[in-house]
Amino acid sequence: MQLILLGPPGAGKGVQAELLSRKFNIPSIASGDILREEVKMRTALGKKAKEYMDKGKLVPDEIVIKIIKERLKKEDAKEGFLLDGFPRTVSQASALDEALKELGLKLSAVINMDTPEGVTIRRLSSRRTCYDCGKIYNLITMPPKVEGICDDCQGRLYLRDDDKEEVIKRRLKVYQRQTHPLIEYYKGKNLLRSVEGGKEAKEVFGEILELLKGN
Ligand code: AMP
Asked: Is 42 a catalytic residue?
């Protein structure tokens, strides 16, 4: 199973990625998580990426493409993988096509999580992320058992800098301009499968499993 999760910020990609990765026993590769880890470790790459991330802009293609290519070469991605948050531009998508060809891999499907803007804004501002393991919570629909603490690792929950309202609006604009064209790109390759991301997570998961039955 080689999957891509596509959708605006706040579509629920992270939650579905976790569920799908467990169900199919494939690694979930989230470009945003990898970049946040670099930021946390204060690497040169992390420092550069942070300048873009804090403003809600996309990190330059060459940086992200390199990171993902390296990750796909690892042993655990040979049997399948799920990409969350990558590709985000047409040039990332064509770099991915090339990389997969080199590795002898093929995409099974691209799941497009179609989500209304009102829903994404509401979700992102009530989202909290674990600083240690990256697990995602929602203060309204999926709160932690103990306020401010991760159920899984007891890490501290925080509001991502780019989940603040002014940055959210920029990220949604960036999505429309740079990532939305990928819907046509993958439609053209007959790989696109759409679900409504505005529904409750369990329901969306069920629909994704239905869509993947043919794969
Ligand atoms: P995410 O966790 O997917 O919402 O990503 C958080 C931020 O990381 C984005 O707003 C971008 O600044 C950066 N980022 C993540 N994935 C990519 C990507 N594929 N291309 C460029 N920037 C990315």
From this structure: no
CB 198 within 8 A of CB 7: no
Q: How far apart are CA 18 and CA 91, in angstroms?
A: 26
CA 213–ligand 1 middle distance (angstroms): 29
Sheet with 192-196: strands ordered across: 28-30, 81-84, 2-6, 109-114, 192-196
88 is catalytic: yes
Q: Which two tokens stand for residue 42?
A: 């204060």
Strands 109-114 and 136-138, by their bridges, are: unpaired
Residue 91 is given by DSSP the state H
Give the contacts of 139 (CB within 8 A, at least 6 positions apart): 126, 127, 128
Q: Is the CB of 162 under 6 A from ligand 1?
A: yes
Is residue 12 within 6 Å of ligand 1 at its C-beta?
no
pLDDT in tens, 9-64: 999 999 999 999 999 999 999 999 999 999 999 999 999 999 999 999 999 999 99
Q: 83 has which bridge partners? A: 4, 29
| Contact indicator for 24, 102 with CB cutoff of 8 Å | no
Of 135, 119, 157, give the one whose Cα is nearest residue 18. Answer: 135
Are 171 and 88 in contact by the 8 Å Cβ rule? The answer is no
pLDDT of amino acid 165: 87
Q: Percentage of the chain surpassing pLDDT 70?
A: 100
CB-CB contact of 22 with 195 (8 Å) = no
